[in-house]
Amino acid sequence: MIKKFKRQKLKLLGFSFLAFLFFTLNTATAFASGGGDGEKVNISEMITHHISDSHEWHFFDGATLYLPVILYSADRGIEVFSSSNFFGADHKVVEYNGYLYEHGHITPTDASRSILDFSITKNVASLFLTAALMLFVFLAVARGYKKNAGGAPRGIQSFFEPIIVFVRDEVVKPNIGPKYERFLPYMLTLFFFIWFGNLLGLLPGAANLTGNTAVTAVLAILTFILTNVNGNKGYWGHIFNTPGVPWWLKPVMIPVEVVGIFTKPISLALRLFVAITAGHIVLLSLIGLTFLFHSYAVGVGSALVVTVINFIELLVATIQAYVFTMFSSLYIGMAIADHDDH
Amino acid sequence: MLFSMLLDAAIGVMGAGIGAGLVAIGAGIGIGRIGGSAMEGMARQPEAAGRIQTAMLIIAALIEVVALFGVVVCFLIATADPA
After folding, report:
1. Containing domain of residue B56, as a range?
2. Partners of A70 in the beta sheet?
3. Which residues of chain B does A275 touch, with a Cβ-Cβ cutoff of 8 Å?
């Protein structure tokens, strides 16, 4: 019985390895056809294009989704148009309606005008997609609990129950303490949003959602607000009147502690951003090697290495979601802990 | 002459490479120490191997991120506009 199970597991692993390899080779050939013949391929430009936000969603050559551009300016009001207007014949970037599209940013040609850009960019679209997927999955899970209350979990519910229980019992409860229940919805949302975002970002042609500083900064700011709003007397006392420190050391301690309030969310945001973005950079650089060397042998070699790294990225996607949730609960736990043990 | 050499973009790219190498050394030491300690712990207490392995992976991921900082900084310097 166990042997059969193990063989099935191995089969599954082998199958997923092949699937990844196929994806990698597919991506590689897409780049090869895009590079043109004899023309020098600019690898770093390709990588920058892949990890940054843009107004069009380029899945592969021949399939591009042009996303809506929404601009607000004082003199013209709200303007909505498709980003395909910026692309003229043979994909040359052209000026449209007094706006220029350069390096993923829209700027007015008239330098004296200023605009606010509310466009649905690739990352925003990917954010909506993640939100829709999470709503779909977790509404189904919640429905499951309503339907067979007290019974054994069924279907998609049985996949997510162990993960939810893991986050509650291993991540949130030990770090926040007895008053964890108030923060559990936020922590679960955080964990699953980062996890889903990381995994969706690994798909070929996907956006780099959780590897965007704006997204990670918003998540960190939410934790920052929760930490400081819920901070009790002990928390602020430790910052402005650290117990057990002689008075002449206070002028040094207080600035250090105040800076500490802000370094916590910054480290949260940077860690997630770097882990995901650097993963993409490493994958794309290894694929890019093929086009630097112009050789099939290097192509096969880098496809194999990239496949292995893709598996590590799956692990990193989960660990980063775990780490972000764990540190968030740790910070909140430190802010609401009872400090009468001194 | 030294000043103009220091301003050369190529030297900057070289610096990025050297810095990334130094980061790799640091991360290597860190992950090596974690791996060594985890192995020792598992050998001493094989029944706790599962929990030790999970904790080891998490800490290793934290250190790996520090190494990836090197990758990102190196990438940013290498692709920076020399102007």
Report:
1. 20-76
2. A80
3. 61, 64-65, 68
Q: pLDDT for A32-91, tens place per residue?
A: 554 444 456 677 788 888 888 888 888 777 788 888 888 888 888 888 888 888 887 676
DSSP class of residue A313 equals H
Closest Cα in chain A, distance from residue B50 (Å): 15
Question: What is the number of domains present in chain B?
Answer: 1
Q: Scanning every residue of chain B, which has its alpha carbon at the shortest distance from the alpha carbon of A282?
A: B71
Domain assignment present for B31: yes
Task: Answer yes or no: is B71 within a domain.
Answer: yes
Tell me how far apart the alpha carbons of residues A26 and A16 are, in angstroms, rounded to a whole number.
Answer: 15
B5 in Cβ contact with B60 (< 8 Å): no
* Distance in Å, alpha carbon of B61 to nearest chain A alpha carbon: 7
Cβ-defined contact of A271 to B71 (cutoff 8 Å): no
Q: Would you say residue B2 lies in a domain?
A: no
Cβ <8 Å between A316 and B62: no
Question: What is the pTM assigned to this prediction?
Answer: 0.83
Say if B13 falls within a structural domain. Answer: no
Tell me the count of A-B CB pairs closer than 8 A.
41
**C-alpha distances in angstroms, A131 versus A135, A136, A305?**
6, 9, 32
Domain at B64, CATH number? 1.20.20.10
